[in-house]
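Sorry, explain these tokens?

***
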Amino acid sequence: MGFAQLFPSVFSTIFAHSMTNEGLRFMMLAVSSFLADNMAELPPLRSYRYLQMGIPRIQQALTDGQIDDALVYSVFLAAYLHLIGGELASTRRHLEGLRLLLQRYNTAAGEFGPNMPPELMFIYRMAIRMDHQWALGDQEAIFPLLTNQSDWWIQRLVDYSQPEMVEWAVAQFALDDLLTRAIAINRRAIQLRESGGPDQDLAETAIRRETAKLLEEHNAWNNRGCVKAAKRKQEAEQQMMELNDEVIQAEQDRFLHYPPLKFSDKLYGAILVQYYWVQIYITFITYPHPGPYPYDRFEAAIDVCRTYANVGWSHTCGTCRVVIGLYLTGLTLGEPMYPMGTLYY
């Protein structure tokens, strides 16, 4: 999932609950078996067997009204398993169920009471990220935008030996919230364009105005303390690499003919990949056509590729959902608009 570095205790808590809950234990085995067999290039037969044992127990708990934290974790893992298995319709059904289970902690729309365990706030946040996979086109998001932006739960889950991770978690979730708003605006823009009518020019003006607000907030993300510090460090490392003539050794981290980048802080690099592809997505709201226009979209796509080339799959996979980024980058740089990729990549 890419968040063990930020929240190392969450998965230990889920594991502890599984010791006394069969449904959760089978769902953990289903997910782990799927991942292990996928890495070994084997069919996920074990995963489906555990899933068949876990789902009836989840259904029985729902029937009996046994709503507890273990059930929430079980439904979340079921959604996650179907997501990584590419079954988006089943993912959506589980996410809808998860939203209903979490409503018992609601004090108002998009707000949770202080009695909500911090681990369940983490689950809520991860569910929002899974929701993005489904709603990225023109679908309505399942989870509403959080209005309560308190980071109390983050402080309780982050490793005390790395207090700076609180800032990074807040920065990561700020990009997620920005994407949630962008998805809602994009869906509304699609509806306005499909409706037609004599006020189409006014509608486009409104779309551009809302998109400009998103891009302004997107740019302001760079003013966060942890981001500015990481950027200064990366720029210094880049200069040292160039001064020491280490560019040749970094050839394997190069994207096409562009100069290679150097990121020793892989977390910053991974989150930066998401920063760039969120910008690409926002430009598609105003200009919903594939290609390298506007130029900001083209630059962001190149930055996605250059950053990913150095940071790598293992660091970006869960943290920034790089598959979405590469998809949006493909819409921007694909042949014949950017044929160099087919020649040199």
In short: Residues 163-345 form one domain.
